[in-house]
Amino acid sequence: MERTFIAIKPDGVQRGLVGTVIQRFEAKGFTLVGLKLIQVSRDLAEAHYGEHREKPFFSGLVDFITSGPVVAMVWEGKGVVAAARKMIGSTNPLQSEPGTIRGDFGIDIGRNIIHGSDAVETAQREISLWFQDNELANWSPTLSSWIYE
Ligand code: DAT
Ligand code: MG
Question: Known Pfam families for this protein (predicted)?
Answer without folding.
Answer: NDK
